[in-house]
User: Which sequence fits this backbone?
């Protein structure tokens, strides 16, 4: 009983202390806002605005994650924000990404991140988009022995439109490129050994 009432007392004292603190914060924030307004009136951009411009340059950006299930996936929010993603249902907390629709000549940015519990020697991902008509199965098979070339078979290099680096857990690579003008279905694939066979593949639909 005694300890209970003690606790209540303590809480009351505490809340008074907090409300004083809040008042102080409130006044401080008004002063801060006034100062900020004065600075803003002086013209020029704030650091925050400049940073935003660098990140948000208008280029459509797709954040893709490579998983230990050997799948390309995206966050559910990415699907909500971009109706040109072709998806294939739930993959744990993510959505399976089966393809990307794009306009001919569109500027596109793909940011691939690997999330894995395994070392990079056992689990790494890339995303390589190839020309129309490429035998993607042959490309993937030939790339198995191309470890020194980030698992991109040299014989197929001229058929690769663009590729990310090979990425281990926690690594990210961003590629920005111009979508081909010729409409069609361009395959993209992860060339880490076994991953194409495991379903790490998709299609860039240009139309
Ligand atoms: Cu992979």
Assistant:
């Amino acid at each position: 009983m005694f300890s209970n009432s003690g606790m209540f007392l303590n809480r009351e004292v505490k809340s008074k202390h907090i409300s004083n603190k809040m008042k102080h914060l409130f006044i401080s924030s008004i002063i801060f806002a006034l100062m900020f307004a004065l600075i803003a009136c002086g013209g020029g951009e704030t650091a925050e605005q400049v940073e935003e411009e660098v990140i948000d340059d208008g280029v459509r950006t797709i954040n893709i994650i490579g998983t230990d299930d050997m799948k390309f996936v995206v966050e559910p929010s990415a699907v909500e924000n971009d109706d040109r993603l072709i998806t294939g249902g739930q993959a744990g907390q993510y959505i399976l990404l089966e393809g990307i629709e794009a306009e001919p000549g569109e500027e596109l940015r793909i940011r691939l991140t690997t999330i894995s519990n395994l070392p990079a020697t056992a689990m790494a991902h890339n995303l390589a988009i190839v020309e129309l008509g490429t035998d993607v199965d042959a490309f993937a098979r030939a790339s198995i022995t191309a470890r020194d070339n980030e698992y991109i078979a040299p014989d197929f290099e001229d058929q690769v439109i663009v590729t990310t680096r090979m990425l281990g857990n926690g690594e990210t690579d961003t590629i920005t490129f111009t979508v081909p003008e010729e409409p069609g279905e361009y395959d993209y694939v992860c060339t880490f050994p076994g991953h194409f066979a495991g379903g790490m593949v998709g299609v860039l639909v240009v139309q």
Observations:
- Residues 1-23, 25-54 have pLDDT under 50 and may be disordered.
- The first strand starts at residue 60 and ends at 66.
